[in-house]
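The methods section describes the discrete structure representation at length, but only in general terms. The central task, working out the structure tokens from the amino acid sequence alone, is never made concrete. Nothing conveys this as quickly as seeing an actual entry. For illustration, here is how one protein appears when written out as sequence plus structure tokens:
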Amino acid sequence: MAEAESSTDSTIPTHTKAWYYSEHGRPSDVLKFDPNWPLPQLKHDQVLIKVIAVSLNPVDYKRMHGEFKDTDPYLPIVPGFDVAGTVVKVGGEVRKFKVGDEVYGDINEEGLSNLKILGTLSEYTVAEEKLLAHKPSNLSFIEAASIPLALETALEGFEHAQFSAGKSVLVLGGAGGVGSYAIQLAKHVYKASKIAATASTGKLELLREIGVDFPIDYTKYNFEDLPEKYDLVYDAVGQTDRAFKAIKEGGKVVTIVPPGYPQAIFFALTSKGSNLEKLRPYFESGQVKPILDPKTPLPFSQLIEAISYLETSRATGKVVIYPIL
């Protein structure tokens, strides 16, 4: 694709501060900081974003560990999928955004392949117009950054499962990023008849607050041994083999954890800014809310600690990095 016309504005940067890794491994071993990472030329369908906040996702550390080397072989890499920030430059064919707009989105269109070399853990990043949406005016940049990948994943799972009003759902990992949005979508968008979800003891109250009818403490109960069965089990944690014991006859299991499982619906997200726009009214009305981990936000300088914390699987909702103070 042709490049955008070069800008005459001397304030447009050519380089950016960024975290990167040039070999696969543990974050504490491989992540390094570069104060002068070169920015790519802007293409006609792209915008340049001044990054204000970034949320972390499990895919970030899984990618760092090399789990996707077959489809994501390139190094070095600036990690990061989710971003919230302001537009500082637009490509020649961009129509939806202008300089100064507040935007958010998941900048990788395909969840596990064709991933960008320049991710969002950077002072500036680049994304295609179609992957972004206008930030809801009632949300902070920190809140908005927590939304895109997790919300879009939760939505796409319901779409793959052809979920509809009046059906029941069990969400495995209800207090996590995807799980907490799956619960809220089931309640407010899909009008589920009953919502159950698993979490540890201290997170059961959160589940109730966001719409769960039947919170299950996984430290005390095996969800598959309980008498209640569901039309859909939404597996956000990788317990798909057990999930089949919790569905009604004709029920479905959807999972986001590779490699999936026979008979389950496994998918990797296809990012679309249009899905964020479609769900915007639910955030503006306060029906659907971002769930932020108590440690959030963490400063850009503490990225390694933040990713290491996410790896413990103890985070509640989303962990957000706030690079630009």
About this structure: The chain has two domains: 15-135+292-321, 152-266. Residues 1-8 have pLDDT under 50 and may be disordered. Residues 82 and 106 are 4 Å apart (CA to CA). The first strand starts at residue 15 and ends at 20.
